[in-house]
UniProtKB/TrEMBL annotation:
The keyword Hydrolase applies. It comes from Asticcacaulis aquaticus. GO terms for molecular function: hydrolase activity. Keywords: Hydrolase. It comes from the Bacteria. Transmembrane segments: none annotated. This is HAD-IA family hydrolase.
Amino acid sequence: MRLAVFDVDGTLVDSRASIHRAAVEGAKAINIDPPTYDEVRSIVGLSLFEALQAMRPELDPETVAAYTREFQNAFLTFHADPDFTEALYAGAHETLVRLKNDNWLIGMATGNSRRGVTRIVDRHGWKDIFDVTFCADDGPSKPHPHMLQCNLSALGVGTHQAVMIGDATHDIRMARTAQVHAIGVSWGFHTVEELQDAGAHEIVHDFKALERSLEAFVPVLA
């Protein structure tokens, strides 16, 4: 039994432009300085309120709550546009299908809301791919290990049988805290150096390399 748990934004879905745009539109709506892309990328992966609070620590909780609502409103507006697209990274869908065909269990740990998870799963036809999905609405934000532990518990999998795959340091720290093998991907929001510093066991640069890494993964009790 082997379980691959995936982050979504920056790992499977290339949402870099839309997340930055939503953060900018939300900031304008409440009359605060719009963030740079570098500011935004550092907090992607956290639950939204915690992410915006971390990015703008000078704001009081009420203002952060307003920023969160405006960010969400902007994102919903984007998705209501029939011409709006958020592409999958090349090879993402094919890798998920191959893992499923190779009898891997597949889970999700994302800072998205449950509404966002449902939208993503429906849009990409992943209902039969993911065995379980856990998100920001289910408990503490990354890097707390809660979401990853929920994946393990729901599927009856030991920590030595699981791999966490993500593009952000929050994913890596969550995995290390949960004592799960941590694979960083280099194509998302955080840099290779940041992933290394967070403690990634390995870093891959495309989905073919990820597949090779997972093929070589052998669950071994410590």
